[in-house]
Design brief:
By secondary structure, the chain is mostly helical. The chain is 65% helix and 6% strand. It has one domain: Up-down Bundle (Four Helix Bundle (Hemerythrin (Met), subunit A)), CATH 1.20.120. The protein has six helices and two strands, in the order αααααββα. Helix 1 runs parallel beside helix 6.
Length: 162
């Protein structure tokens, strides 16, 4: 197996576990708390992270990013899926399932495909490696958001494992 695929699989799985660990320290009474009316809650951030893992798996499997014209519909469907995840247990179940789908999708790539470029539309291309690293990078960024929210309610412990 290609070393890049192996490393991307390991980092995606490790990032998910680290996120779930950090999220486990969010008290139940703080799951939907937000620091401002327009900010996202820890639950919504977790739901977003879980849902997007599945979307990344589909992109990797299809070797395709949504084009700029497809992005509004893509985001509307993702938002609806996020809003439907309202429990810690269900979020973790979806996150684990979608991360398994990422690992399976990564396994489906050949070494040549990892060096390909993806058409983003309008003559814009991105390297496939961007998409290979996206599942782990995305999770780690959102894990930092959970860590920040925890400091807002005066949890000063370091839970972040990323």
């Amino acid at each position: 197996m290609d070393i890049l695929i192996t490393v991307c699989k390991e980092t995606a799985a490790d990032a998910m576990e680290s996120f779930i660990h950090t999220f486990s320290f969010v008290p139940d009474d703080r799951l939907t708390w937000t620091p401002t009316p327009t900010a996202k809650s820890a639950m919504r951030i977790a739901a977003h992270t879980a849902v997007y893992a599945g979307l990344f798996a589909t992109m990797i499997t299809n070797r395709k990013l949504p084009t700029p014209e497809e992005v509004p519909d893509f985001r509307a469907k993702a938002d609806a899926a996020e809003e439907a995840l309202t429990s810690r247990v269900e979020m973790e179940r979806v996150f684990r399932k979608n991360t398994e789908n990422v690992l399976t999708a990564l396994d489906s790539l050949t070494p040549d495909e990892t060096r390909a470029t993806l058409d983003f539309g309008h003559g814009i291309t991105v390297p496939m490696t961007f998409l290979l690293w996206l599942p782990s990078n995305h999770v780690l960024g959102h894990e930092g958001q959970i860590d920040f929210l925890q400091t807002c309610w005066d949890d000063q412990e370091i839970h972040f494992q990323g």
